[in-house]
Amino acid sequence: MVKSNARRGVVAASGVVGLSLVLAACGGSDDEGGGGTTDAADVDCTPFEKYTEEYGDLEGTEVTIYSTITPPEDQTHIESYVGFEECTGVDVVYESSDEFEAQLQVRIQGGNPPDIAYLPQPGLLRTIVQDTGAPVPAPPGVEANVDKYFSPDWKQYGTVDGTFYAAPLGSNVKSFVWYSPTAFESNGYEVPETWDDMMALSDQIVQDGGVPWCQGIASGDATGWPATDFIEDIVLRTAGPEVYDQWYRHEIPFNDPRIVDAVNQAGEILKNPDYVNGGFGDVSSIATTDVNQAGLPILEEQCYLHRAASFYAPNWPEGTEIAEDGDVFAFYLPSINPEHGNPVLGAGEFTVAFDDRPEVMAFQEYVSSAEWANTKAELGGWVSANNGVDLANYQDPISRLSAELLQDKEAVFRFDASDLMPGDVGAGSFWTGMVDWITGASTEEVLTQIEDNWPE
């Protein structure tokens, strides 16, 4: 699982276009999840009339999409466009790649960008805007949807130097700890509501002869990224969102004392030989444990707690019941300092256009709408920060739980900091620094090395 490809997604309105529209277009049923074809006459095109009224006759046009969302996760995206295609006459051509970041820039430089790209990092949007000037500012209909259905933070992530370019698409929540409800019940453990409760639970598991935590940060060329998520979650909880923002913007040094304190607090779990690494080995084994396999010892009670995002769900073996009373579920990583509220760390994709043809603007507006987000939610395996999505449309409990956190007006949401930092740091020295830290380097040494690596 490469980090940029893992950030897939994850909200309440009437008159939305539901899954029934897509399935009618595909000739499927709720159980079948699509497949087949049907005539345009089988689709209720009323919700799509506004696009042809606003953008004109779109019949016979084409929009190309380029994305990090690869098979099989791309299938529900493709299915979600069927109603738009049938009713507007636009052919949506979807392409994805594991080498998206590099190839997108090659295509831009070669004068052959896609019509729309789904960017997994706001930092990449800023780089492309500032280095190439190729992205097209979002049209008024897209901006109106974002103002209506998303929080100002999300709009900010799609804005560069005061110009709004990119609407949010899918989202995910990273502030989760996975556990086994059945194992908790059999051992008399309760889901912790505070950080102190969670640490006390960890101590209790040790006293009972168990190993509380299992973690893994090995991810090929992206090894180290899961530890950056852990650190970011704790910076939000100890230093607060304002310091978090100053940190990723480099308005304070990477080795600021408040960041040192947060990393050391993470070390109370990740570098505690009594707490880790259940099912795998000692502390250093975290660096070589594959991120996709890291939580699986929970099923054998070799560990009991695994901090991972909502998108960890597909890694559980087939047949695993993911539910509040099932084999596995997740709870919100508790806050630490009440002054900082209930921080939620997450990520997502953004739609940026490289052409202002009417069909491109129409499609970009559609995927920023509540209508599309509800359709996509009903197809399953996806979450959005779009607050126009009916929570009942989410097909699994983790997606619903994620959406509830994203919709919570009391929650303090922040985007993954490493995705907002320059690539040399956020996808470079921060990742490798976490490997050094896990395998024995001191907090001060690692953070100073990362600070020294920050580009001028």
From TrEMBL:
Pfam families in UniProt: SBP_bac_1
Domain of life: Bacteria
Alphabetical UniProt keywords: Signal, Transport
InterPro entries: Bact_solute-bd_prot1 (IPR050490), SBP (IPR006059)
Keyword Signal attached: yes
Gene3D superfamilies per UniProt: Periplasmic binding protein-like II
Signal peptide: 1-24
PANTHER family per UniProt: ARABINOSE-BINDING PROTEIN-RELATED, OSMOPROTECTIVE COMPOUNDS-BINDING PROTEIN GGTB
Family listed: Belongs to the bacterial solute-binding protein 1 family.
Stated name of the protein: Carbohydrate ABC transporter substrate-binding protein (CUT1 family)
Taxonomic lineage of the native organism: Bacteria, Bacillati, Actinomycetota, Actinomycetes, Jiangellales
